[in-house]
Amino acid sequence: MHERAASSSRHIPRLNGSALISFGIKPVGIYTDEPVKTDPNLKDLDLTGITVLGEEWGKIDVEKAASLAPDLIVGDWWPAEKAYSGLEEGVDEKSKKLKELAPIVGISQGESIVDLAEGYENLAKSLGAKVDDPKVAANKQRFEAAVTAFKTATAAKPGLTAAAMAPSDENLSIANPKYAPELLDFQRWGLKVINPERPDPSFPYWETISWENADKYQPDLILWDSRVFTPTVNAEYGKKQPTWFKVKAAKAGAAVSWPGYWLHTYGDFAVELEKLTTAISAADENVGN
Predict the structure, then answer these.
(1) CATH 2.40.160.210 corresponds to the domain 11-126
(2) How far is Cα 29 from Cα 103, in angstroms, rounded to an integer?
(3) What gap in Å lies between CA 160 and CA 154, rounded to an integer?
(4) DSSP letter at 248?
(5) Of 205, 204, 185, 202, whose CA–CA distance to 193 is shortest?
(6) Does residue 39 contact residue 32 with C-beta atoms inside 8 Å?
(7) What does the pLDDT look like over 203-253, one tens digit per residue?
(8) Does position 5 have pLDDT exceeding 70, yes or no?
(9) Ramachandran angles phi, psi of 284, nearest 5°
(10) What is the DSSP letter of 174?
C-alpha cells in the first residue's frame, strides 16, 4: 500500500475509505458507522498510520480531526437527506463541526454503484492517484464478468421477485430501491426487486412495517441487509418473531446477504454480485405465490 498519492493533500474519508485507499491514497484519518474491524469497506485494507476518528454513526472526534489538519474531507452525498456522510440530521452537533475544518467533497449515492465507483476513480485521479494500476483493471474485468453472469441468471428466471429487508427486534424494514443504487442496478440487470408501497415520509430509504404485518410482501428471495446477516440469522428471527415465517421465502430459507449502502468499488461489487448470482440460480421463482 502506497503511503499517499502524488497529491500533497491530507484527506479524511468516511465509509468510502476503500474507494480511495484502493487507488493508493492513504488518508490521515477515517470515521465509520461501525467498528473498523467489522466495516466491510475496510476489510483486508492496511490502516497503519490512519487515525480512527469514530466508529459509531453520528459521533466523530472533531478535536482529533482538527489535529490532523486535513485539506479535504470526503464523504458520500445522500440525496434524500441532502447531506454528506457525517453531517446528516440526527448526528451529534459537535460532530457537525467537522465541516468547519476543510472543504467536503464526495460522490452521490445516486442511481448506480457503477456511477459511484467511477466517480471515486475520477476523484482519486484528480488527487494524483494512478488509476491505471493492473489491479484496478482486473477488478473491472471481474465486475463486468459478474454483471454478465447476473443478467444470465435473472433472464433464466423472469418471474423471480426479491425484497431487500432489514429486521430489528421492533419492526421490519423494506428497502426502497429509489435510494439504494445497488438495488437499482439489480433491477436494471433483470432482478425484480420489490418497490415498497409506502416509504417512511421522514426517512424514505425504507418502509417500516410491524412484525404483525411481516407478510405484507411475498418475494421469492429475501435480500437480507448484510449489516445484520449471518448464515443462521433467518432461523434466529424465526424463533424471536414467529410472524417472520409467514413470509414464504423466509420459511423456505430463500435468503441471501444484500450489500446495503456500503459498496464503493468494482472489486467489492463483483464479489457481492457473484454471491447473489449463486443465490438467484438456486432460487425458486414460485416460492412467494
Answers:
(1) no
(2) 15
(3) 8
(4) H
(5) 185
(6) yes
(7) 999 999 999 999 999 999 999 998 888 888 888 888 999 999 999 999 999
(8) no
(9) -100, 120
(10) E
Q: Are 182 and 147 in contact (CB under 8 A)?
A: no
CATH number given to 134-282:
3.40.50.1980
pLDDT in tens, 133-177: 898 899 999 999 999 999 999 999 999 999 999 988 899 999 999
Q: What is the DSSP letter of 88?
A: S
- Residue at grid coordinates 429475501: 222
DSSP string, 261-274: TT--SHHHHHHHHH
Domain boundaries, the chain: 11-126, 134-282
Q: How many CB atoms lie within 10 A of CB 283?
A: 23
Q: How far is CA 177 from CA 24, 27, 112, 207, in A?
A: 32, 31, 11, 11
Averaged pLDDT for residues 171-192:
97
Grid coordinates given for 62: 472533531
- How far apart CA 286 and CA 50 sit, in angstroms, is 49
Q: Return the residue matching grid coordinates 492513504.
A: 26
59-63, 127-131, 174-178, 210-214: lowest mean pLDDT where?
Answer: 127-131
- The residue count for the chain: 289
Handedness of CA 66, 72, 75, 77 (dihedral sign): positive
Task: Give 244's contacts (C-beta < 8 A, 6+ positions apart).
Answer: 167, 211, 214, 234, 237, 238, 250
Question: Quick check: do 11-126 and 134-282 share a fold?
Answer: yes
Instruction: Please report, rounded to a whole number, the percentage of residues in the chain having pLDDT higher than 70.
Output: 94
Angle, to 10 degrees, between the axis of helix 181-188 and the axis of helix 266-282?
50
Task: In whole angstroms, give the CA distance from residue 41 to residue 134.
Answer: 21
